[in-house]
Automatic annotation (TrEMBL):
Homodimer. Keywords: Aminotransferase, Pyridoxal phosphate, Transferase. Pfam families: Aminotran_1_2 (PF00155). This is Transcriptional regulator, GntR family. It comes from the Bacteria. InterPro entries: Aminotransferase_I/II_large, Class-I_PLP-dep_aminotransf, PyrdxlP-dep_Trfase, PyrdxlP-dep_Trfase_major, PyrdxlP-dep_Trfase_small. The keyword Nucleotidyltransferase does not apply. It comes from Intrasporangium calvum (strain ATCC 23552 / DSM 43043 / JCM 3097 / NBRC 12989 / NCIMB 10167 / NRRL B-3866 / 7 KIP). One of its GO terms (molecular function) is transaminase activity.
Length: 396
């Protein structure tokens, strides 16, 4: 087939799709998924809510609604954002199909072909997939224990023309698990002001906090309306609902809402109604708190196992929240090849090799490992088997 638009050249299957299909095989131990633990979904409560919605003759739950989202849900999200230091009203909130749609719409709004998006290095693969059709150029800045390196960012901003958007996942980043310090958050806002860039703040893991202080969002430090703040119910309620939100200045919100109208008219009314009912009838904060010990335990067990079994010269991050640790192997170890030739055939384990998480200049000696939803015995057996193979590969 010919005649595709130029942007179609940037639409390619992700390199990880092939082996992610293995994740459903019961013989495989998967540290590759980014899924929340399905055993933690509030299934009883949601069952009750959907049953009520569909039996009480509330046909409104099946009707069209505003493309900005169900007013009741926008108001409840605004209440939560206000409580998190971002005073706002229902009108400021746009409901999206998960955080992912917020990434797409924001890029659609700000990026012309050739404009620059700055990402962390590494960054969320799904964001690169969302941005690519708008034909951006990328620059990337390293991320460390304090999050995005703002000195490196300043250097990039000084030396690069047409930086439109700075994309960051400041809380328990995907894939590294790292968190941006308050000093760097403040500095990031200053730099965005100085160089007139938009900050796209993506926070799906923000509430999965296992230790440390809750830090102010970047949006809460924004005095000039240049932050688009994205959030999601995927990790705190259930990703299948496809519900997220964008908080931005009224001007940006209006344009994002029109782009959303063009893309999909609105989110499903039924799911928005169900989420609104969940928030008003049940205790979401209590539900989140009840999930944290499970994730914290899974994280701790994985980190202990890495310590015991992974060879010297291998390092990993200690995420204070979220679902991931990022492992760095000695240079020269190509994780994709190691996985294909040794890890899958000999240990039945999969991880996500790190290269696709780099917007530019991919590095092959990393892996993202998720502890979410993996039973204890599998974490123990999987990490130790992987460690043994790493010793073998590195000594050979
Ligand atoms: C950093 C980040 N942003 C956005 C998303 C999109 O999630 P959703 O569309 O389910 O809200 C994810 C999902 O894994 C993510 O890790």
């Amino acid at each position: 087939m010919t005649g595709f638009a130029r942007r179609a050249e940037r639409v390619e299957p992700s390199a990880i799709r092939e082996f992610l299909s293995l994740a459903g095989d019961p013989a495989i131990t998967s540290f590759a998924g980014g899924y929340p633990d399905a055993t933690l979904f509030p299934i009883e409560e949601l069952h009750q809510i959907y049953a009520d919605l569909l039996t009480r003759g509330s046909a409104g739950a099946l009707q069209y609604t505003a493309s900005e989202g169900l007013p009741q849900l926008r108001a409840l999200v605004a209440q939560r954002l206000t409580a998190d230091g971002m005073p706002c009203t229902a009108e400021d909130v746009l409901i999206t199909q998960g955080g992912q749609q917020g990434l797409d719409l924001t890029a659609k709004l700000f990026i012309d072909a050739g404009d620059v998006i700055v990402t962390e290095r590494p960054t969320f693969l799904g964001a690169i997939i969302a941005f690519n059709p708008y034909e951006p150029r990328y620059r990337s800045v390293p991320i460390d224990d304090e999050g995005m390196d703002t000195d490196a960012l300043q250097q990039v901003l000084r030396t690069t023309e047409r930086v439109k958007v700075i994309y960051t996942v400041p809380d328990y980043q995907n894939p590294t698990g790292q968190t941006m310090s308050l000093t760097r958050r403040t500095r990031l806002v200053e730099l965005a002001e100085e160089f007139d860039a938009v900050i796209l703040e993506d926070t799906p893991y923000r509430e999965l906090r296992y230790e440390g202080q809750r830090l102010p969002t970047i949006k809460s430090l924004d005095r000039t309306g240049r932050v688009v703040h994205l959030g999601s119910f995927s990790k705190i309620l259930a990703p299948g609902l496809r519900l997220g939100w964008a908080l931005s200045s009224p001007e940006v919100r209006d344009k994002l809402a029109l782009l959303k109208l063009a893309a999909d008219t609105q989110n499903g009314t039924l799911n928005m109604r169900a989420a609104a009912d969940y928030l008003s009838r049940f205790d979401l904060e209590g539900h989140i708190a009840s999930m944290l010990p499970t994730y914290r335990h899974q994280r701790d067990l994985m980190l202990t196992m890495l310590e015991e079994h992974f060879p010297d010269g291998t390092t990993w991050t200690r995420a204070r929240g979220g679902l991931f640790t990022w492992v760095t192997f000695p240079e020269g170890l190509d994780m994709a090849r190691f996985q294909r030739d040794l890890l899958i055939p000999r240990a039945g384990v999969i991880v996500v090799p790190g290269a696709p998480f780099f917007a530019v200049q991919p590095e092959s000696n990393h892996a993202r490992m998720s502890f979410s939803g993996v039973p204890d015995d599998r974490i123990v057996a999987g990490v130790s088997a992987m460690g043994a193979l790493l010793h073998e590969a590195l000594s050979g």
